[in-house]
Amino acid sequence: MTHAPIPGYHYDDPARPASPVSTGELEQLAAATLFTDADVAALKVAGEVLADQVEQILDVWYGFVGSHGHLLAYFSTPEGTPIGEYLGAVRRRFGQWITDTCTRPYDARWLAQQEEIALRHTAERKNATDGARSVPHVPLRYLIAFIHPITATMRPFLAAKGHPEAEVEAMHQAWFKAVTLQVALWSRPYANAAW
Ligand code: HEM
């Protein structure tokens, strides 16, 4: 099946610059979250379970952001008006990110994508992809805080296809580790030398 390209999504572009994070550093960081091959396997199943639920998951997450003015502000003009086109453009890449988190190998190319997503939350690259007239960056503290809602809200979707409880739990733990690992990587441009 072929899909229309997602504007601003360049995961497979061979010209994309490498991440400053090495695969060795990634391995050590993954180990620090207790991420193992069993999690890779659980995420693969999760990818199948979630494939036809991505829009509903995004509805939940966008509902959460949209119902908190101080969070919606990052998708809004500096004067506070939400930018519908910006919300919609990011939503498509956010949906693809769910799939990528479950199905892509965590290799040098994945690291390059993590660095790009990180930068798109910072003043260096936020708004540039969609030409949005929005506020300059998302504060790091909110990226860290979001690990919980992005994880907690996932459980009913992982359970929706009738897998045994132990398997749902394994998928949920793997998802939690994968999100934690990514936010740890995304903290790099905020922390620079301290990372
Ligand atoms: C972009 C995930 C936290 C606001 C994105 C994208 C993803 C993502 C996948 C699209 C990247 C791309 O362009 O391919 C996450 C995850 C988070 C998180 C997993 C935490 C666990 C936050 C928070 C906010 C936020 C707390 C603010 C409330 C944004 C904005 C963009 C974006 C405004 C668009 C950036 C741009 O202009 O390119 N996020 N995000 N994110 N996110 Fe987050």
From TrEMBL:
InterPro entries: Globin-like_sf, Globin-sensor_dom, Globin/Proto, Protoglobin. Residues 25-193 form the Globin-sensor domain. CDD domains: Pgbs. It holds the Pfam family Protoglobin. Gene3D superfamilies: Globins (1.10.490.10). Residues 1-23 are annotated as: Disordered. It comes from the Bacteria. This is Globin-sensor domain-containing protein.
